[in-house]
């Protein structure tokens, strides 16, 4: 499929064209209940169990707005430096689709709750780009269709489809940027950095799980190319199904090279929705629409307008948390980190867990060392993010504490961490279960040291003669004799004391 | 005995049941018998819930026997328009597309009726999705006017009003989007009330036009309507458009009105609702009513509400627009009819075939008008303009209510027409709602009370009384006083 698509060399693309980006991000709020009914808002679950007459669109059922969702929408708007509407309404977006119970989506149209904002985005080299926000509006999610029997899992070619309405009516916030011009060769990076910054912001606001892999944060990337010769705006495509930060970057890059090839061959870019394929890193056209979509928006008559008082808006402004980048600046200063080190931590998505580990009692250096080395390796080998490892910052802090107390050696500490990652319980549980105990009884160690010195009298003599580095051989012998359960530093001290 | 029970008012029946003079089971059985005897001719009911009705009647009888305090209408039978969901009892909305659907939940009105001990006899016939003025648009065949079986009983709630006129039930529930309670009330010689929009919960009312739909009480007397009004009205957190305010004191107002004194009350006669297109017998009945109201002490003068002339066209943009969206959910995916699902057709084809087969011509007409009116490029000219007219109508009402306590007009321009007479002329059919639509657009309360029979054809005529929002009690007072002065006007013989 991909092989049929002509692509232009990326360097050539940016030489000839200016890419223009527009990003639409859908965020599922993690409110307790759905947007317009009292059903639980939880991910997963047996299909069609979290449903009621309202979210199934049964005849006669009516929506009632979830006040917590409105509050979250306003907090998101405020954090994005938006104006909050004095008065706004929901609207119906009418179109037929089996996973949409009412065949209209209750959304907002020309009266969004928040509008005209911006978000500063820091790129890998520290450059800051201001992305202007058009609007943030509230809407409800659809159900999920599972297409069975086809080759692609898409509706085309499927034998039949299954519908799960558990997700129907989950509160969504759609955040739409204005056109982002002038990013040149960095457009793919800007797209990723924007979604990353937005994800971090939403996480700090504690309004969403922001899990791209579970669909609680979804990005549609609009890309068009403007020829440098004319400066005219190009036709845009909208790429959906972009399910990771890396995919955002790849999708934008792919579309740039594809569109440029189309234009170069004298063709025209078709305005269409495209589908990103993770495995090939390419995009393919969505279902062709024969006519322009007309959603026949009109104000939702089943809901009353929302007119948040200015007092409420100001109260919410006071609940805004320290923003992720402000926090980063503070941490950098407090911990005395270089720009490079900080950026590595952020890119590894490790900063929050390190901070949490420090808050749980560890020293910054120790916490950082664990998360960026051993734990990062474990995450890497499993192909997941460090934040998805089955260990909490508090547990890491406990391991560090045990090492500092001499209860665990570094080697044992890793074993303990492995045990936690394998689901054996807390660090203390693992120590208990695996029978790990650092041999810290000096008399036992002294006995072992004496035996080792006796076994290697020539080495013992060298140490007595002042060749301190020779102590390593004795320490090694003791560690071997104690099956690694001794504290090597303490063993060394004893060796030196015995030979002085 | 049976004859007495079916002729009695709801208030009288309640008194007898609560005193133990008769049982609710006897009263209920008398009405079930009456339905069995007459509904072959009238066809007011789509579904009679004999078991459910008798079970509820027995519960009330036990409570009365046990000396428990029961609510004012406990044990009294009622006919429920088939637009209200009823848990475990079919709800078709007069449409093939919902044939066989058994709702898993009760509408708030249904729940309130059950909690008040009211006995629901069954579900009444209606124009499909409440779209119509004659009940001829029901997918299950028309209802016949008990006064003349060749004539329509009004619509969309013709089943509820015909059930009252045929003595099949002393109480009924209707819904009124453009006159669907009042116009059937008018042409069947019964009382029909459209409360203030938001006064009665719409939760479980299968929507036609959300911003206009309003459920209300139907009865043979003003007091009975008031008693039922207080059972079903009140704030409901399940309906965002429900008004969080005390229920207007309509029962007290109806009792006060029975004293027959309207001294000092200012009544405005809407000048837009007279003249050409109005049946002479209707106008004569209306003038007689005006004279009687004067005799009761009311001060009566003409009032002009010029924007009311645009109410009908505005209504026929707003209501179809909302219905085109509200009825989109009937797509064969989750409930109701499914046509053509033979394993070879796509989802879209099944949706399309189902909607083609499941909706009748009037419903399709309105879906298409509404879809067009909301289309990009036409929205401002149609839906947008209609909303502006709506604002003007609300302003005309507000101005008129500065000078008048209530406004009056004929409820509908003619008496009941013959079945089939307007079936192929939608515009003529739509004009039946000429006088009733403004109150829906403004969200204000309005009711129809019988003003006797037309001297030309012997068919019932209705007097419409309109009041400001949340002043529902005002019109009950006027209606009750008028009703007492008017006296009896006979009834249909079946």
Automatic annotation (TrEMBL), chain A:
Q: Where is this region: Disordered?
A: 263-293
Q: Does the keyword ATP-binding apply?
A: yes
EC numbers for this chain: 6.3.5.-
Q: Which residues form the Asn/Gln amidotransferase domain?
A: 352-499
HAMAP family according to UniProt: GatB
Q: What is the lineage of its organism?
A: Bacteria, Bacillati, Actinomycetota, Actinomycetes, Pseudonocardiales
Reactions mediated catalytically: L-aspartyl-tRNA(Asn) + L-glutamine + ATP + H2O = L-asparaginyl-tRNA(Asn) + L-glutamate + ADP + phosphate + 2 H(+); L-glutamyl-tRNA(Gln) + L-glutamine + ATP + H2O = L-glutaminyl-tRNA(Gln) + L-glutamate + ADP + phosphate + H(+)
| Family per record | Belongs to the GatB/GatE family. GatB subfamily.
Quaternary structure annotation from Swiss-Prot or TrEMBL: Heterotrimer of A, B and C subunits.
Q: Which GO terms describe its molecular function?
A: asparaginyl-tRNA synthase (glutamine-hydrolyzing) activity; ATP binding; glutaminyl-tRNA synthase (glutamine-hydrolyzing) activity; transferase activity
One GO term (biological process): glutaminyl-tRNAGln biosynthesis via transamidation
UniProt function note: Allows the formation of correctly charged Asn-tRNA(Asn) or Gln-tRNA(Gln) through the transamidation of misacylated Asp-tRNA(Asn) or Glu-tRNA(Gln) in organisms which lack either or both of asparaginyl-tRNA or glutaminyl-tRNA synthetases. The reaction takes place in the presence of glutamine and ATP through an activated phospho-Asp-tRNA(Asn) or phospho-Glu-tRNA(Gln).
The alphabetized UniProt keywords are: ATP-binding, Ligase, Nucleotide-binding, Protein biosynthesis, Transferase
Stored InterPro entries: Asn/Gln-tRNA_amidoTrfase_suB/E, Asn/Gln-tRNA_Trfase_suB/E_cat, Asn/Gln_amidotransferase, Asn/Gln_tRNA_amidoTrase-B-like, GatB, GatB_Yqey_C_2, Gln_synth/guanido_kin_cat_dom
Q: What class of enzyme is it?
A: ligase
Q: What is this protein called?
A: Aspartyl/glutamyl-tRNA(Asn/Gln) amidotransferase subunit B
Automatic annotation (TrEMBL), chain B:
Tell me which residues make up the Amidase domain: 26-474
Per the record, the domain of life is: Bacteria
- Which keywords does this chain's UniProt record carry? ATP-binding, Ligase, Nucleotide-binding, Protein biosynthesis, Transferase
Q: Does the keyword Cell inner membrane apply?
A: no
The entry's active site is 81, 156, 180
Tell me its EC number(s), please: 6.3.5.7
Give the CC-aspect GO terms. glutamyl-tRNA(Gln) amidotransferase complex
Q: Which Gene3D superfamilies match?
A: Amidase signature (AS) domain
The cross-references to InterPro entries, in alphabetical order and at most eight, read: Amidase, Amidase_CS, Amidase_dom, AS_sf, GatA
Q: Which reaction does it catalyse?
A: L-glutamyl-tRNA(Gln) + L-glutamine + ATP + H2O = L-glutaminyl-tRNA(Gln) + L-glutamate + ADP + phosphate + H(+)
In Gene Ontology terms, what is a biological process of this protein? translation
Q: Care to name a GO molecular-function term for this sequence? A: ATP binding
UniProt xrefs under Pfam families: Amidase
* Top EC class for this record: ligase
Entry-linked NCBIfam families:
gatA (TIGR00132)
Subunit comment: Heterotrimer of A, B and C subunits.
Outline what the protein does. Answer: Allows the formation of correctly charged Gln-tRNA(Gln) through the transamidation of misacylated Glu-tRNA(Gln) in organisms which lack glutaminyl-tRNA synthetase. The reaction takes place in the presence of glutamine and ATP through an activated gamma-phospho-Glu-tRNA(Gln).
Family statement: Belongs to the amidase family. GatA subfamily.
Tell me the protein's name.
Answer: Glutamyl-tRNA(Gln) amidotransferase subunit A
């Amino acid at each position: 499929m991909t092989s049929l698509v002509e692509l232009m060399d990326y360097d050539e693309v940016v030489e000839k064209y200016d890419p223009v980006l527009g990003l639409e991000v859908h965020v599922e709020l993690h409110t307790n209940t759905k947007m317009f009914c009292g059903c639980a808002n939880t991910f997963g679950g047996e299909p069609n169990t979290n449903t009621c007459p309202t979210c199934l669109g049964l005849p006669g059922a009516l929506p009632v707005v979830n006040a917590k969702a409105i509050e979250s929408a306003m907090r998101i708007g405020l954090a994005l430096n938006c104006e909050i509407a004095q008065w706004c309404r929901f609207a119906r977006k009418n179109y037929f689709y089996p996973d949409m119970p009412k065949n209209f989506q209750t959304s907002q149209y020309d009266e969004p709750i928040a509008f005209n904002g911006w978000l500063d985005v820091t790129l890998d080299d520290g450059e800051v780009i201001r992305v202007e926000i058009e609007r943030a509006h509230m809407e409800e999610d659809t159900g999920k269709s599972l297409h069975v029997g086809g080759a692609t899992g898409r509706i085309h070619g499927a034998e039949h489809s299954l519908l799960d309405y558990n997700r129907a009516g989950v509160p969504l916030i759609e955040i739409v940027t204005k056109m982002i011009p002038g990013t040149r060769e960095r457009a793919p990076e800007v797209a990723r950095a924007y979604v990353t910054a937005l994800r971090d912001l939403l996480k700090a606001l504690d309004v969403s799980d922001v899990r791209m892999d579970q669909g609680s944060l979804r990005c549609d990337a609009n890309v068009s190319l403007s020829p440098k010769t004319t400066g005219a705006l190009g036709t845009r495509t909208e790429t959906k199904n972009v399910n990771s930060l890396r995919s955002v970057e790849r999708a934008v890059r792919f579309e740039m090279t594809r569109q440029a090839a189309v234009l170069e061959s004298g063709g025209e870019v078709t305005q269409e929705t495209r589908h990103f394929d993770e495995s090939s890193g390419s995009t393919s056209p969505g279902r062709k629409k024969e006519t322009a979509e007309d959603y026949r928006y009109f104000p939702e008559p089943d809901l009353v307008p929302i007119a948040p008082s200015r007092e409420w808006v100001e109260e919410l402004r006071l609940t805004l948390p320290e923003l992720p980048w402000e926090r980063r600046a503070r941490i950098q200063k407090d911990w005395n980190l270089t720009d490079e080190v900080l950026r590595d931590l952020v890119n590894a998505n490790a900063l929050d867990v390190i901070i949490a580990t420090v808050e749980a009692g560890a020293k910054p250096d120790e916490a950082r060392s664990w998360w960026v080395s051993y734990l990062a390796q474990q995450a890497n080998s499993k192909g997941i993010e460090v934040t998805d490892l089955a260990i909490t910052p508090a547990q890491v802090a406990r391991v560090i504490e045990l090492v500092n107390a001499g209860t665990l050696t570094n080697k044992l500490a890793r074993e303990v961490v492995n045990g936690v990652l394998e689901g054996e319980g807390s660090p203390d549980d693992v120590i208990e279960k695996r029978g790990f105990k650092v041999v810290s009884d000096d008399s036992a160690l002294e006995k072992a040291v004496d035996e080792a010195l006796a076994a290697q009298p020539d080495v013992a003599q060298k140490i007595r003669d002042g060749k301190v580095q020779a102590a390593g051989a004795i320490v090694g012998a003791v560690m071997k004799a104690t099956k690694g359960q001794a504290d090597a530093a303490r063993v060394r001290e004893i060796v030196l004391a015995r030979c002085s | 005995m049976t004859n007495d029970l079916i002729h009695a008012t709801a208030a009288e029946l309640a008194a007898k049941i609560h005193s133990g003079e008769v049982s609710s089971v006897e009263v209920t059985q008398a009405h079930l018998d009456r339905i069995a005897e007459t509904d072959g001719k009238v066809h007011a009911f789509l579904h009679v819930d004999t078991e459910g009705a008798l079970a509820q009647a027995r519960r009330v009888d036990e409570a009365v026997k046990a000396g428990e305090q029961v609510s004012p209408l406990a044990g009294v039978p009622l006919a429920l328009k088939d637009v209200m969901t009823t848990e475990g009892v079919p709800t078709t909305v007069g449409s093939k597309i919902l044939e066989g659907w058994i709702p898993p939940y009760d509408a708030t009105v249904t729940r309130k009726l059950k909690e008040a001990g009211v006995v629901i006899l069954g579900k009444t016939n209606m124009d499909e999705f409440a779209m119509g003025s004659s009940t001829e648009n029901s997918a299950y065949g028309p209802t016949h006017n008990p006064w003349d079986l060749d004539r329509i009983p009004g619509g969309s709630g013709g089943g509820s009003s015909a059930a009252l006129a045929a003595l099949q039930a002393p109480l009924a529930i209707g819904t009124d989007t453009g006159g669907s309670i009042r116009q059937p009330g008018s042409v069947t010689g019964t009382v029909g009330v459209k409360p203030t929009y938001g006064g009665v919960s719409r939760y479980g009312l299968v929507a036609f036009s959300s911003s206009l739909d309003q459920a209300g009480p139907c009865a043979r007397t003003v007091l009975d309507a008031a008693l039922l009004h207080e059972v079903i009205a009140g704030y409901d957190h399940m309906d965002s458009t429900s008004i969080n305010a005390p229920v207007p004191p309509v029962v007290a107002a109806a009792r006060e009105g029975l004293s027959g004194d309207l001294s000092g009350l200012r009544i405005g006669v809407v000048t837009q609702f007279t003249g050409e297109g109005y049946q002479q017998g209707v106008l004569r009945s209306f003038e007689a009513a005006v004279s009687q109201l004067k005799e009761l002490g009311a001060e009566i003068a003409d009032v002009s509400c010029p924007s009311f002339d645009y109410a009908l066209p505005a209504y026929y943009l707003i209501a179809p627009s909302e219905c085109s969206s509200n009825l989109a959910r009937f797509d064969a995916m989750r409930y109701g009819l499914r046509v053509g699902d033979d394993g070879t057709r796509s989802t879209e084809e099944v949706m399309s075939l189902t909607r083609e087969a499941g909706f009748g011509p009037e419903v399709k007409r309105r879906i298409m008008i509404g879809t067009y009116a909301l289309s990009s490029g036409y929205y401002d000219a149609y839906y947008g303009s209609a909303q502006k007219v709506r604002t003007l109508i609300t302003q005309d009402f507000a101005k008129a209510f500065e000078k008048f306590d209530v406004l009056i007009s004929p409820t509908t321009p003619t008496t009941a027409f013959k079945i089939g007479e307007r079936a192929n002329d939608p515009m003529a059919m739509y004009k039946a709602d000429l006088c009733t639509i403004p109150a829906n657009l403004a969200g204000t309360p309005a009711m129809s009370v019988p003003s006797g029979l037309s001297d030309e054809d012997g068919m019932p005529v209705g007097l419409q009384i309109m009041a400001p929002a949340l002043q529902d009690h005002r019109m009950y007072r006027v209606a009750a006083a008028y009703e007492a002065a008017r006296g009896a006007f006979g009834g249909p013989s079946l």
